[in-house]
Amino acid sequence: MPYEREESAFGLLFSCKMKRQNVRTLSLVVCTFTYLLIGASVFDVLESDTEKKRWEYLKAMKHSFMTKYNMTDDDYRMLEIVVIENKPNKAGPQWKFAGAFYFATVVLAMIGYGHSTPVTRQGKAFCMGYAMVGIPLGLVMFQSIGERLNKFASVVIRRLKTYLNCKYTEATEMNLMFATGMLSTGIITTGAYVFSNYEGWSYFDSFYYW
């Protein structure tokens, strides 16, 4: 009886601990996502008008250039290929909310800005402060998610070993590394395939991007 009570108490304690960890992870995810929304909104406000004026200026310059040199649209497109003047804006405005949200995500994930960088002094100043707070927040969130994924993988591996009647059913570090590698490979190959079709890139370039 004492042993059963001790085991029951241990199970209840473990269950409560797991629930607290899950609540903590969910809270971090919600907090980080809210922070991304705030960042995207601020970047939208700070950068959108400047980008719009620059875009209108480029369109006016294009029209003036084509008129001055009597160029056709095909001629100008050929020139664009050489100069790549408007390449950063080919997908549309960068600093509307969707593009700003992507930039905010890139800042938190620390994967590089690419073509998208703030132009205004206010945008640059906000970016520095935003990164100083957001990067640690993102790291804590990713660490917590990683812990949850490891726990989930351990449970799956243990049940699989039990189903296969393995002598040792506990998930080893090697098992977790293999599971993580397979999951990462699946995500990268799937993402590369999507980008290859969506962007028209070669599969190798898409895989490298991921």
Summary, kept brief:
The chain is mainly alpha-helical. The chain is built from six helices and no strands.
Structure notes:
The protein is mostly helical and 210 residues long. The chain has three domains: 31-90, no CATH class; 93-167, Helix Hairpins (Orthogonal Bundle); 172-209. The chain contains six helices and no strands. The N and C termini lie far apart (56 Å). The mean pLDDT is 82. GO terms for molecular function: outward rectifier potassium channel activity; potassium ion leak channel activity. Keywords: Ion channel, Ion transport, Membrane, Potassium, Potassium channel, Potassium transport, Transmembrane, Transmembrane helix, Transport. It is found in: Membrane. The chain crosses the membrane at residues 26-46, 95-113, 125-145, 176-195.
Keywords:
ion channel; elongated; 80% helix; 210 residues; mainly alpha; 3 domains; potassium transport; Helix Hairpins
Can you count the helices? 6
The CATH topology of the largest domain corresponds to Helix Hairpins
Distance from first to last alpha carbon: 56 Å
Instruction: Quickly count the domains.
Output: 3
- Contiguous runs where pLDDT drops below 50 for at least 5 residues: none
Give the name of the CATH architecture of the largest domain: Orthogonal Bundle
Rg (C-alpha, Å): 25 Å
Topology of this structure?
Blueprint: H1 2-68, H2 73-83, H3 97-109, H4 121-163, H5 173-199, H6 203-209
Helix pairs in contact: 1-3, 1-4, 4-5, 5-6
